[in-house]
């Protein structure tokens, strides 16, 4: 199937290294732009998901902001319908809201992830989004965007 | 003179409205992506400077991060040489460090500005970068980047 775009080199910021922890499914890359410290309390990462890649359900005690720089992806909060996110979208994830994000099955996704109030602690990682649940979100068709 | 690039429509995020306060010289546009609040404590703006535009010297009590999304600009801290900043650069501005930023004379600049620890208060605005001081930084030539 055609891809809407190829973000295998990410967008604007470096792609960084492959994420190897157990909280991501599919290939995802992370470049930390600002590390976690007690001066800014605001770690910032550039995250690039290949088609089909996504993270587990999780929560941030201090919240997180996503700035979508390219591609087409999904963002979902527990108990709510999935949202399709694309270039230029801004996602505000309130503290302790259970959610996940990632690419659609047929598109790359690149976003900047800004962890706010980081002094409140690290993300709490939960269960994966199963293949069954993910597939039920449907295959997004080319939008030409 | 040729422009390296035309960012009159900004980069990825909306250009927003013209900044009309007295702390900017030349035309600059701001689109707030995340407003200031007590939940995230992290207002985020997309800022687009036309060639020659820059802000006054200022300080942030909680610090600020700049993510450069396009163009070529200047960043300078008091008592230090100017730095040329371009697409993909990340600038960490420590709390209470006096500094300014803006476009070069011949290039647009677009950056995302992330105000960290915003609960510590608003920016303190100081004197302008005079035309004389700004011109002495020299005219940057096309880099082809």
What do these coordinates show?
The structure is a homodimer of 145-residue chains. Chain A is mostly beta strands and 145 residues long. Chain A is built from 1 helix and 12 strands. In chain A, the strands form 3 sheets. In chain A, strands 1, 3, 4, 7, 8, 9, 10 and 11 form an 8-stranded antiparallel sheet that branches. Chain A has a two-stranded antiparallel sheet with strand order 2-5. In chain A, a hairpin with a 5-residue loop joins strand 7 and strand 8. The longest helix of chain A is centred in the last third of the chain and has 5 residues, at 131-135.
Please identify the structural class of chain A as seen in this structure: mainly beta
- Name the assembly state: homodimer
Count of helix runs of chain A: 1
- Distance between the ends of chain A: 17 Å
Largest sheet of chain A: 8 strands, antiparallel
User: What is the general shape of chain A?
Assistant: globular
């Amino acid at each position: 199937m055609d891809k809407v775009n190829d973000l295998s080199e990410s967008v604007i910021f470096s792609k960084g290294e492959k994420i190897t922890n157990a909280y991501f499914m599919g290939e995802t890359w992370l470049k930390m732009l600002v590390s976690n410290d007690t001066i800014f309390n605001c770690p910032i990462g550039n995250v690039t998901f290949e088609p089909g890649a996504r993270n587990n359900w999780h929560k941030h005690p201090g919240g997180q902001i996503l700035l979508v720089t390219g591609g087409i992806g999904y963002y979902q909060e527990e108990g709510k319908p999935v949202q399709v996110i694309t270039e230029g979208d801004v996602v505000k994830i309130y503290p302790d809201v259970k959610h996940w994000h990632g690419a659609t099955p047929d598109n790359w996704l690149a976003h900047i992830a800004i962890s706010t109030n980081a002094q409140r602690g690290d993300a709490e990682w939960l269960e994966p989004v199963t293949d069954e649940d993910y597939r039920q979100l449907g295959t997004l068709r080319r939008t030409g965007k």
